[in-house]
Amino acid sequence: DRQTLVAVLQFLRRSNLRESEEILRREARLLGDDLGAAALSPAATGLLGAPGGDADSGGEALLSRVTAAASIAVGGSVATVASSSPGVAAVAAVPPGKGGARGVGARGRRPAPPGGTPGGPCASRSLGGSPLFYKLLLYANAFAVGGGIVVEDQPDVSAVLSAYNQQGDPTLYEEYYSGLKHFIECSLDCHRAELSQLFYPLFVHMYLELVYNQHESEAKSFFERFHGDQECYYQDDLRVLSSLTKKEHMKGNETMLDFRTSKFVLRISRDSYQLLKRHLQEKQNNQIWNIVQEHLYIDIFDGMPRSKQQIDAMVGSLAGEAKREANKAKVFFGLLKEPEFDVPLDDEDEEGENEEGKPKKKKPKKDSVGSKSKKQDPNAPPQNRIPLPELKDSDKLDKVMNMKEAARRVRLGPECLPSICFYTFLNAYQGLTAVDITDDSSMIVGGFADSTVRVWSVTPKKLRSVKTAADLSLIDKESDDVLERIMDEKTASELKILYGHSGPVYGTSFSPDRNYLLSCSEDGTVRLWSLQTFTCLVGYKGHNYPVWDTQFSPYGYYFVSGGHDRVARLWATDHYQPLRIFAGHLADVTCTRFHPNSNYIATGSADRTVRLWDVLNGNCVRIFTGHKGPIHSLAFSPNGRFLATGATDGRVLLWDIGHGLMVGELKGHTDTIYALRFSRDGEILASGSMDNTVRLWDAVKAFEDLETDDFTTATGHINLPENSQDLLLGTYMTKSTPVVHLHFTRRNLLLAAGAYSSQ
């Protein structure tokens, strides 16, 4: 805004940075006299500090705002990221000696190709805004270097709180709030639903303002009188809020900082907004108007106001709804072209049964593989958009096996539901906390609260380690069965236990080629294990707090992790530093998933939002709001177009990634949904929950006839059909086993897993 701009220009002038001042003025189209004549408003003067007075409170406070979006560690070579600054898209860490810290706004380089040097990308652009903003960040960076100003990677608590200094008469707060409440409740039905969204953010800010200014009794009375009016899905936040009763409690409180640093987003039609504005101006209600302007972001759209049902579907996250702008970027949600190679035909004995069918059966099979590779999906990213690992011979062999299995795949649908095979972990006194199953369904891994990782073979083939070095030297390397010979039969067993973590293991993931296994733990590390030797190869240290989830890319090599530090990190197995840091969530990142084309990563968080990140440049390209509790499961449809999300609110929400819209809601579960999986062809969605059930949903029906016209996309007028019961194909109860993992085999048999709980 102009006020801040003028303040920055004044500061540049005072710091004798004339050149920067000129560039900024040109970019902002401000003439020289404009600046001279522009009398600074009290707020701008406050930002700058009084002339000749205490520059510390002024210039630095302003700079800390300007640089909060991207603080650069000066002198060293690692770019750090402001973890609680909501606009930050991503800043990547650069290993020392590999290019140093470049200015923010520099174009992020691609991840090094597999096996390349660890010269990870540099700080990428953030805050999809005007070029002016990038320049501002560059200037801020220049000040940080030249002006000796300490740039922190957390917003300064006192600076954040000082916004609460402007206070009205504490005794009138209840009157202001109840006056607004009365006005909204008496307004027309069409406006009431939209304006009711103001209740919660205003309630929180007014309460915090009273506490900050040490009107404790008024704050308590205000809280008790109005907290019951808030929507039920804010109960957990209100519980935290009720514990903040003194000014001292507010310093360093995460919830407090979240609420202060991220503007609460409300989406309101122009008519409703004008009505509100008129009311507040007539009533001279400056206290509320100040909060609306200072702390809320009102996303105004032209058109009909939304109904209560439409609003309820989208709200509930920690920072309100997503701005419409947040979901406008283009997303390449199509699948990458499959590599071409010949598929050897089936053995004669399998085809011998039907002499006539033999040639028929062979031809289409070869064709289908060819046609699949030749046809380029129009929504797919360019094949080389991010470097992906080369296919090894063993991978090609596996793909051939996969295609053979696919030919025998059961075609699922409402008339043909999958069989479900449930793996129950009995007597799991160690506390089962994570499960994964290999793509070919040959191994299952469990992560446990006693910090062990246990791998089982679920086929008659036992798990064997490679022989010792001395024994390996005796083997004839030229023999055809060398891969068999290197395995030590003496080590064969159904179960291998991997020791190394020093805290509960919260996430596990097999690599697509089944050679590696990832595990992440409360100890803040992600470990990579070899499934040839059953030993730990690497411990990746980057998170400072528990890591809740990790997952391999569908192409291997890359993997993602998310944790309590509110960020997700993208890694490559041969880099000890993360390639990308995805920052923007306001609470723990609880689950992570790669898109089938590996160009995007979805993260679910305890801030009740789901974000989609671009692996290439680290930008956040989608923000989905609508869940009323922390998100614990994510699943992409096999065609890459849709995303299903499950949370503690017991609802499965369906999203159209291309349009950035919610397109469905599946109600039925009564507890947290920990597992979601689409069948191999995408006809069925399976969900597993803490309510001890597996439910099957008709995905084809859920995604047909979608209303994704431009109007819906522009205004968010989504009309979710109340058709959960029509889409529910079956509910399967376990005796007393919460479902923590689901997996469809290559032939569409559904495998489920969980630990039996006796209570």
TrEMBL record:
WD repeat copies, ranges: 425-466, 498-533, 540-571, 582-623, 624-657, 666-698
GO process annotations (BP): transcription initiation at RNA polymerase II promoter
Alphabetical list of SUPFAM superfamilies matching this protein: Taf5 N-terminal domain-like, WD40 repeat-like
Compositionally biased residues, Basic and acidic residues: 366-377
Repeat listed as a keyword: yes
GO molecular function, one term: RNA polymerase II general transcription initiation factor activity
UniProt-listed InterPro entries: LisH, TFIID_NTD2, TFIID_NTD2_sf, WD40/YVTN_repeat-like_dom_sf, WD40_PAC1, WD40_repeat_CS, WD40_repeat_dom_sf, WD40_rpt
Keywords on record: Nucleus, Repeat, Transcription, Transcription regulation, WD repeat
Compositional bias ranges of the Acidic residues kind: 343-354
Localization (cell): Nucleus
CDD domains registered for this protein in UniProt: TAF5_NTD2 (cd08044), WD40 (cd00200)
Residue ranges of the region described as Disordered: 97-122, 343-397
Repeat is among the record's keywords: yes
Subunit structure: Homodimer. Component of the TFIID basal transcription factor complex, composed of TATA-box-binding protein TBP, and a number of TBP-associated factors (TAFs), including TAF1, TAF2, TAF3, TAF4, TAF5, TAF6, TAF7, TAF8, TAF9, TAF10, TAF11, TAF12 and TAF13. The TFIID complex structure can be divided into 3 modules TFIID-A, TFIID-B, and TFIID-C. TAF5 forms the TFIID-A module together with TAF3 and TBP, and in TFIID-B with TAF8. Component of the TFTC-HAT complex, at least composed of TAF5L, TAF6L, TADA3L, SUPT3H/SPT3, TAF2, TAF4, TAF5, GCN5L2/GCN5, TAF10 and TRRAP.
Function: The TFIID basal transcription factor complex plays a major role in the initiation of RNA polymerase II (Pol II)-dependent transcription. TFIID recognizes and binds promoters with or without a TATA box via its subunit TBP, a TATA-box-binding protein, and promotes assembly of the pre-initiation complex (PIC). The TFIID complex consists of TBP and TBP-associated factors (TAFs), including TAF1, TAF2, TAF3, TAF4, TAF5, TAF6, TAF7, TAF8, TAF9, TAF10, TAF11, TAF12 and TAF13. The TFIID complex structure can be divided into 3 modules TFIID-A, TFIID-B, and TFIID-C.
Family the entry assigns: Belongs to the WD repeat TAF5 family.
Name of the protein this chain belongs to: Transcription initiation factor TFIID subunit 5
Upper lineage: Eukaryota, Metazoa, Chordata, Craniata, Vertebrata
